[in-house]
Specification:
Layout: H1 2-13, H2 17-23, E1 34-35, E2 41-46, E3 53-57, E4 62-66, E5 72-76, E6 78-80, E7 82-83, E8 88-93, E9 99-107, E10 110-112, E11 120-123, E12 126-133, E13 150-156, E14 165-171, E15 185-189, H3 198-201, H4 205-214, E16 222-226, H5 257-272, E17 282-287, H6 289-300, E18 307-311, H7 329-339, E19 343-349, H8 355-368, E20 373-377, H9 383-393
Parallel strand pairs: 15-16, 15-17, 17-18, 18-19, 19-20
Antiparallel strand pairs: 1-2, 2-8, 3-6, 3-9, 4-5, 7-8, 9-10, 9-12, 11-12, 13-14, 14-16
Helix pairs in contact: 6-7
């Protein structure tokens, strides 16, 4: 035993300093965020030399801003944190509704992450900390002691991308063990600037699927989450381009090229997964730009998708595109109406900057005679809404 302790001590003493700091960093650390049973949340940061610290996030009242182009958005507000005699700054938010919240801390004008919170999300080129207030509304986002599906990162051969295109593919619990069973498929698209990681990380899609399937509220299904940027084969840092800065300004955004290439993704999935390759067992949906993708793919292939979901969809984009995908849009919608999809589901927040264009689109659907379900929620162009829409949409599929 004595020799073993000496060996361990020698090993520790030989470690690099950074490794030692990492191993022993947990002792006596500040708790932040501190979520209490009543839903109040306290944030803390030890910064005795700082002059001013603020906190901002989705748990704060929103403020309205206007861009130089005249577009008006609501963004998260800010609040001052208070410093105690030990140099620890604190801010407490009163009771919050059950939900997933994101936030940052601003130290003397510089936005930083909470050093006490290891749970972070990347949304395009911003990194935010997050926490979940437990409750009925956030229950679908939690990991529970139930059967879990598998999330895989898969490379699909592509004529448009030399190195292929990466997909995130969810297969339900039991897919690997019962190899005789075949499954319906949902193609789920992210928004502008997002990637194939967005729905599983920001959208909690795998947790939502696990929970709804385990509860019998949703059919077991394969969910394919492609990278919908035709100019980027995979998430930032995981492509042949190297460690480039993520951006929303990617070539060929919503110009029809992704829609033209989509059949190669569908063919790849049907060839490599145990799908039920027919309209009654195939769905497509997406948020924002992904709603544009879903709208155009479904109206260009009216006999391929029985279930279509548009979440805060960019329905008015692509008019100036020369792609054949965007030709004769009304004629294609009429053919889709004639094909009678089992569900055409549209949801948007009443504060979303795309709200008016979506309402105009509903009038077009009325004129054409395409039956739809419309869901109007509170709020704007935010992940809180998109997670909710996915939770509402999944139980309606493949019935």
């Amino acid at each position: 035993m004595k020799n073993s302790l000496l060996i361990l001590a020698a090993a520790i003493s030989g470690m690099p300093l950074a490794a030692q700091e990492t191993i022993w960093a947990g002792a006596g650390e500040i708790v932040s965020p501190d979520v209490t049973p009543d839903g109040s949340v306290t944030f803390r940061i030890n910064a005795p030399q700082a002059s001013k610290i603020e906190i901002t996030g989705t748990m704060m009242p929103q403020q309205e801003v206007t861009t130089p182009q005249g577009m008006t958005f609501k963004v998260a507000g800010k609040a001052d944190m208070l410093k105690d005699e030990n140099g620890v700054w604190t801010y407490t938010v009163p009771t919050l509704a059950p939900e997933l919240y994101t936030y940052n801390i601003i130290v003397d004008g510089v936005t930083v992450n909470d050093p006490s919170n290891v749970y972070r999300l990347r949304d395009i080129n911003s990194i935010t900390d997050f926490f979940i207030v437990p409750g009925e509304a956030s229950a679908p986002y939690m990991v529970n002691n139930i059967p879990h599906g598998t999330v895989a990162k898969v490379w699909c051969p592509s004529a448009q991308a030399d190195n292929g295109r990466r997909l995130t593919v969810y297969t339900p619990a039991g897919y690997e063990t019962d190899t005789s069973r075949r499954y319906p498929v949902l193609y789920l698209h992210h928004g502008m600037g997002g990637d194939e990681n967005a729905w599983t990380e920001l959208g909690r899609a795998s947790q939502i699927l696990d929970n709804l399937i385990a509860q019998g509220k949703a059919e077991p299904m394969i969910v394919v989450m492609p990278n919908g940027n035709i100019a980027m084969e995979a998430a930032p840092g995981e492509t042949s381009a190297g460690l480039k800065q993520p951006t929303t300004r990617l070539p060929h955004t919503m110009d029809g090229l992704y829609e033209e290439s989509f059949p190669e993704i569908q063919s790849f999935i049907d060839a490599n997964y145990r799908t039920i390759p027919d309209k009654a067992h195939r769905a497509i949906a997406g948020l924002s730009m992904g709603g544009y993708h879903s709208l155009n793919i479904s109206r260009n292939h009216p006999d391929d998708f029985g279930y279509i979901g548009l979440f805060s969809a960019a329905v008015d984009r692509g008019q100036n595109s020369t792609s054949p995908v965007n030709a004769d849009p009304d004629g294609k919608l009429r053919r889709l109406a004639q094909a009678k999809p089992a569900l055409y589901w549209i949801a948007i927040g009443n504060e979303d900057f795309l709200y008016d264009s979506n309402k105009e689109y509903l009038k077009k659907l009325d004129d054409i005679g395409l039956n739809y379900v419309f869901v109007e929620s509170d709020g704007g162009h935010i992940w809180k809404n998109w997670r909710t829409y996915l939770t509402q949409f999944l139980p309606l599929l493949f019935k």
